[in-house]
Amino acid sequence: MVTNYPFKIYYVVLNANDIINYCGPTRSYIDHLNKKNKFYKKLEKSILDCGFRNPILVTAGRAGIPNIRIDKLPENIDIDDSLICDRHGGSRLWVGQKHNMDIPCIVSDFVGRFFDHENELKNTLDIKNCFTDKPEIIRINAHGVHIKSAPHYHMIE
C-alpha cells in the first residue's frame, strides 16, 4: 500500500499534447534508429494500428522530479502545474504528440491534480495490472513510480 509518500498514484488517459516530453527522443536519435532498424516508423505504425499497449509514467509537480533541468523545459511554464514524462515512455509520447492522441498514463501526483479521480492505484500490483506487457520491477519511492525490465514489444513491419 502506498502510504508514506507525499503523492498519490493514478491511472488516467490524457491528451499527449498536455504532457511535457522531457525524456523524449531528439530528431537525430529518431533518424539514427529509423536508419538502423526503422524503430520509430515501426513504433508509429504499431500505435496507429493497434493503440497504446502500455501506459507512460508522468509526474505532476516539481517534488517528483528533483533532478530535472529547468533549462530543458519549455519557456514560461509553471513546473508545479505541469505534467512531465521524465522517465518512461518518451518514444510513445512522441508518437502521441505527433498525432494528437490520448495516451494512458500512470501519474505520480504531487500537487493533488487528480484528487477526485476514481482510478487511484494503491500498490505495485495495481500498477502492474495497467500494463499489457508487464514490467518485472515496479518501485515506488519518494520521487514517484519507477519501472525496470519492461518487456520490449517488437513491432512487425
- Largest pleated sheet: 6 strands, mixed
How much helix is in the residues?
10-25%
Query: What low-confidence regions span 5 or more consecutive residues with pLDDT below 50?
Result: none
Into which percentage range does the β-strand content fall? 25-35%
- In what order do the strands lie side by side in the largest sheet? 2-4-3-5-1-6
Number of beta-strand segments: 8
H/E element string? EEHHEEHEEHEE
In round numbers, the mean pLDDT is: 87
Q: Specify the overall morphology.
A: globular
Number of individual domains: 1
For the CA atoms, what is the radius of gyration?
A: 15 Å
Ends apart, CA distance between termini: 41 Å
Structural class: alpha/beta
Number of H/I helices? 4
How would you describe what is shown here?
With 157 residues, this protein is an alpha/beta fold. It has one domain (8-148). 24% of the residues lie in helices and 27% in strands. It is built from four helices and eight strands, in the order ββααββαββαββ. The strands form two sheets. It has a six-stranded mixed sheet with strand order 2-4-3-5-1-6. The chain has a two-stranded antiparallel sheet with strand order 7-8. A hairpin with a 2-residue loop joins strand 7 and strand 8 (144-148). Helix 2 packs across helix 3. The model has no long low-confidence stretch (mean pLDDT 87).
